[in-house]
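Minutes, structural biology subgroup

Action item carried over from last meeting: produce the structure token record for NAD(P)-dependent oxidoreductase (Paracoccus jeotgali). EB confirmed the sequence was re-checked against the source entry. Recorded below for completeness.
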Amino acid sequence: MTRKRVVVTGGSGRVGRHVIKAMAADHDVINADLAPPRDGHDHGARFIQTDVMDLDSVRAALKGADAVVHLAGLDYDWGCEPERYIDVNARGSWHVLQAAEEQGLGKVVLCSSISICGLQEMRPDWAPQSLPIDERHENRPVYPYGVSKQVAEVMGESFARKGKLEVICLRPLAVILPETLGQYLDFVDAPDRHWLFYYITAEDLARAFKAAVEVSGISFDSFYIGADDTSHSEATLDWYRRIVGPLPADVDAERYRTNPRAAVFGNDRAKARLGWAPTSNFDAMRAAHESARVLEAAQ
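Output recorded by EB:
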């Protein structure tokens, strides 16, 4: 494996800090963000103040780099104005792609989202067409955040067509950080929760970004990045029928027979093409969290 100079936009953010930590041992990493990480843990990364809405700022940050991981943007749960999602997430991605091409980088890894498909919106007119849901599934986002990610992927593919950049889009599921596991459990355990119970740990997601930087030979592709299991305690097909409704016509019955709690979003493509695999087990995560909570209460 060749050591690379990797720029991480948004490296001071919740996910960015994990991505930089995963990269730092094998690559020279630059954190391109508006401000350094608040906790002061830079994991050896050099900080360059960067505003992805300023093309010249991005050009300066990417100078001399081999690859860029683009994480900077407005997140789904921030509740921003619709036009802000489109402006920052779409235009910021364009700036990174344009600057990367101009500076002669070999690769751009875009942080897309599960929201690109629109299924997390749980609209009555839009339900999964297959189980598991994979990258061949139709995308029908309505919310502006999901639309912004779809636009960014289209832009990424347009740059890849020119043959100067390799562009990989990762679509993380709901990201669980160590400090947010309790909040996530409160969410999924709420009575009558109408959802698809998907997740990915920040550590596993960070390894996926590292794998995307290191893999060669992919001119353009998109990948769902999720755990093998769901965060629901029941068998997947059982809670799906009860919470979502009738199963789609296309169901991989053998998958759910082999692993009754298999995820509704598939990760086979990422495993095959990126050489990545998740390591988490939600039952074990839940048990460890409960044990820690009991121990804390007893002290």
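Discussion: The chain has ten helices and eleven strands.
Next step: EB to file the record with the rest of the batch.
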